[in-house]
Amino acid sequence: MVNRRRAAFAGAATVVLLLTAGCGSSEKGNNAQGTNVQPAGDSKDIGTGYGTDYGASSTGGYGTDAQAGAKKGEPAKELAVRSDGKLGPIVTDSKGFTLYRFDKDTAQPPKSNCDGACAITWPAVPADDATASAGIKPELLGEVIRTDGSRQLTLAGWPVYRYAMDTQAGDTKGHGVGGTWNALAPDGKKAGQQAAAPAPSPSQTQSQVSDVQLSVTDNDELGKIIVDGKMRTLYRFNKDSAWPMKFACLDACLNTWKPAKPVDKTKVRGVASKLVGTVTRPDGTKQLAIDCWPVYWFTGDEKPGDINGQGKMGLWFAVTQGGKKAGAGS
């Protein structure tokens, strides 16, 4: 971050505002008006994030670091269910990468037939540390011993893989490859097979068929941290305040730290509902708050899982599952 940006937001005026969900306390005469701040919180105005490459790699797959991790057999940790516009519900690992099954494998009994060069393109997902989240029955998780003696995760008996050419969370480039590879549905079947099923009735909750807007992911350095619907790490700013509600990231600061959009609480996974709120910024736009703290995403994060904003200037911190500052002990 360049020095002029640091100076700009380090010296930004602190504005006191009330949190619409009831956080903070009111002080008469402190509500700011007329602050000239560009609209924040709308992705149409601020772009898609993660820089221009969004984690793409010339080496193909996961970006440089993640691809290496996949080849070495990175654990999936907590599996999640995400809704794909074409395939319906699909299973992902804790970082949002799509998981697959292979028609040439067998489920009864479980057996993997992807070895050698196949396993480079389709890295096997280890059975270690894999757990099920909402939408996946824990009893469907199992394991199979591969020819090299390693233990591979299975779902409903089917060995589970990643695809090396998926470059970002949510990619489904492996679906349909060779007519034998398919993204996994939560029941272990091929994703997309229910595409022709009748539309959900109005009585079904939207959270069952819509994208998750806020969730928790496992970070190797910080543990469980909160991410938005695009798997962007969310941060809080020490110069902001929750009690009473204050904003200190204004003007030039907003070029680097983008206020996160409010979310539908029915589309939140892994975060206690009582922690999720909304604040009104000085320009009248709405911003997501966690435990009454305004939260932001960082333009310096280039791909899902990045935590490049962690500890910036000793003032910016990722947010834990409980709404606290990650890695700060508070």
What does this protein structure show overall?
- With 330 residues, this protein is mainly beta.
- It folds into two domains: 3-50 and 212-318, no CATH class; 63-190, no CATH class.
- Helix content is 8%, strand content 23%.
- The chain is built from four helices and 21 strands.
- A three-stranded antiparallel beta sheet has the order 1-15-14, with no helix packed on it.
- The longest helix is centred in the N-terminal third of the chain and has 9 residues, at 63-71.
- It starts with a helix and ends in a 12-residue tail after the last strand.
- 42% of the residues are buried.
- Residues 1-21, 25-71 and 195-210 have low confidence and may be disordered.
What would you say about this model in short?
It contains 4 helices and 21 strands.
Shape: elongated
Helix and strand run: HEHHEEEEEHEEEEEEEEEEEEEEE
Poorly predicted regions are 1-21, 25-71, 195-210
Order of strands, main sheet, comes to: 1-15-14
Structural class: mainly beta
| Overall pLDDT score | 78
N- to C-terminal separation? 25 Å
Task: Count every helix, treating DSSP H or I runs of 4 or more residues as helices.
Answer: 4
Main β-sheet description: 3 strands, antiparallel
Beta strands, count: 21
Which percent range describes the beta-strand content?
A: 15-25%
- Cα-atom Rg, whole angstroms? 21 Å
* Percentage of residues in helical conformation: under 10%
- Counted up, domains total 2
Could you give the topology of this structure?
Blueprint lengths: L2 H8 L4 E2 L26 H4 L16 H9 L8 E5 L3 E5 L7 E3 L3 E2 L2 E2 L5 H5 L19 E5 L5 E5 L2 E2 L21 E3 L30 E6 L3 E6 L6 E3 L3 E2 L2 E3 L9 E3 L16 E5 L5 E5 L2 E2 L1 E3 L17 E3 L12
Antiparallel strand pairs: 1-15, 2-3, 4-10, 5-6, 7-8, 8-9, 11-12, 13-21, 14-15, 16-20, 17-18, 18-19
Organism: Streptomyces fildesensis
Keywords: Lipoprotein, Signal
Pfam families: Lipoprotein_15
